[in-house]
Design goal:
By secondary structure, this protein is an alpha/beta fold. The protein has helices at residues 26-32, 40-48, 53-63, 76-80, 120-132, 153-170, 187-196, 208-214, 224-237, 256-264, 290-309, 329-334, 378-382, 390-393, 398-401, 406-413, 421-448; strands spanning 2-7, 10-15, 21-24, 88-95, 99-101, 116-117, 139-146, 173-180, 197-203, 215-217, 241-248, 269-274, 315-316, 342-345, 350-352, 366-367.
């Protein structure tokens, strides 16, 4: 299986199962048209009798295992992934928020329940559970989430201290991360976060008028001026990884302008995610918006290339692709590990497959106070791999998106096995752009050499 597509003035050929990317000329590209689903045998037979340099190049790549390769390396044992152990945990330390964001999937922090904060005792139980059930994995991750986690900052500090203490007993290394809306981000919190957090997500939607339309205080006041000041102060001090993360809706289909705005302020790591919500909402993305969204990803591609050529430090999250090595095969088959390698914990100690399922009682696994916790969702999520999902099985991008977001599938289609269609379209476009950027910059670098 291959995927061939034009990108700017180049023609790119992706060999799906090996991950090899070829920059081809127009003649090779045209010969490969219509062959996307062919096997190596079918392709070999098709090109065997053809004359010419282009056909010979194709035959050579097939013989060398770089084109029309199969996926025989994927075994039933890999698909079952029965050895999966928990390696990451999302602690909902605050089911409360000092903002009211229109599109919030957490229902303004309450997650379909009552507003509350996680206690130190519950947080310690969660850390203990992670350490005891992580098998031989040394590197673990804990994300402090909400609502707004900085509303429970003293507990965050206590849990980091406890994690640092307990990780040594188990020979583990916990990487802490935090997601914040920035309203409470002062110098004290900045110092602590920069010292203890491996990654930080700073939520903001971009331009002032875009951000303030969807992200207001609980009193209905705009938030941009306050949080942008806090973020600029924070990132000046930040040495480790961070992302300013926005959400684009139908209100800002020109979201490349929001990325440009954020980078113009000096933010070097930017992520802008598509909203996923009830299609009845006026800000929900519709299928008819597809081409307009694609145009924006093309504009972001030009922005990325322009900055790269100028030597400017800029990273757009969705254009990150590692063609040299990338994530391990098991991750490519099943994605984020929700329900198997990743769990979320509510303030009351309830366990869920991931942060987006919190509050959905159909996906509740148990509570940390239970004597025995049986993960009744484990088999469901283990089976949700790219070979079991009909829409993914023959998709050329399956090893890049790994089947998409399980929560989005449930929210949009009511079934973990049916991916969100528009989300798939956007993912394929982003992967094309990411690979294209890699190819263009690689070609330009080789010409300079």
């Amino acid at each position: 299986m291959i995927h061939a597509y034009p990108f700017q003035d180049q023609y790119l050929i992706l060999d799906v199962n090996s991950g090899a990317v070829h920059v081809a000329d127009r003649e090779v590209y045209q010969l490969l048209q219509g062959m996307e689903q062919a096997s190596a045998r079918e392709a070999s037979d098709h090109f065997e009798a053809m004359e010419g340099e282009a056909a010979e190049d194709i035959r050579t790549l097939i013989r060398e295992g770089m084109l029309f390769t199969d996926d025989s390396y994927v075994t039933e044992e890999m698909l079952r992934n029965e050895g999966a152990v928990i390696k990451a945990m999302c602690l909902h330390v605050a089911h409360d928020c000092n903002m009211i964001c229109t599109y919030c999937f957490g229902e303004q922090g309450s997650f379909a329940g009552s507003k509350c904060l996680m206690s130190v005792e519950v947080g310690k139980k969660a850390i203990d559970y992670l350490l005891r059930n992580s098998g031989t994995r040394r590197n673990l991750e804990i994300d402090f989430f909400g609502g707004e986690p900085l509303m429970n900052f003293e507990v965050v500090k206590a849990l980091v201290a406890y994690g640092r203490q307990e990780e040594q007993k188990y020979g583990k290394n916990i990487r802490f991360t935090i997601t914040t809306n920035g309203l409470l981000l002062d110098s004290e919190k900045t110092q602590f976060i920069n010292q203890e957090m491996d990654n930080v997500i700073l939520s903001i939607d971009g331009r002032p008028e875009i951000n303030d339309k969807m992200r207001k205080t609980v009193n209905g006041k705009p938030t941009y001026e306050k949080i942008i000041s806090n973020y600029l102060d924070f990132t000046k001090e930040r040495v480790g990884l961070y992302y300013v993360r926005g959400t684009f809706t139908r209100n800002n289909l020109d979201f490349s302008r929001d990325v440009e705005h954020l980078t113009s302020l000096g933010f070097r790591n930017v992520s802008v995610e598509p909203v996923v919500t009830d299609l009845g909402q006026d800000y929900a993305l519709q299928e008819e918006d597809r081409e307009r969204i694609f145009e924006e990803y093309d504009r972001l591609t030009e922005l990325y290339l322009d900055k790269a050529r100028k030597g400017e430090d800029f990273d757009f999250f969705h254009f990150n692709v590692d063609l040299e090595q990338g994530p391990c095969l098991l991750k490519r088959l099943s994605g984020c590990g929700a329900g198997t390698e990743y769990l979320a914990v509510s303030p009351e100690g309830d366990l869920y497959p991931c942060h987006q399922f919190v509050g959905n009682k159909d996906f509740r696994i148990g509570n940390l106070s239970d004597t025995v916790i049986e993960n009744n969702q484990r088999e469901t999520f283990l089976k949700a791999n790219i070979y079991e999902k009909e829409d993914c099985r023959n998709c050329w991008a399956r090893f890049y998106c790994s089947g998409g977001c399980h929560a989005n599938a449930v929210n949009m289609n009511g079934d973990i096995m049916i991916p969100y269609h528009l989300g798939c379209e956007m993912e394929r476009k982003r992967v094309e752009c990411a690979i294209g950027i890699y190819a263009v910059l690689g070609t330009e670098e080789s010409l300079q050499d």
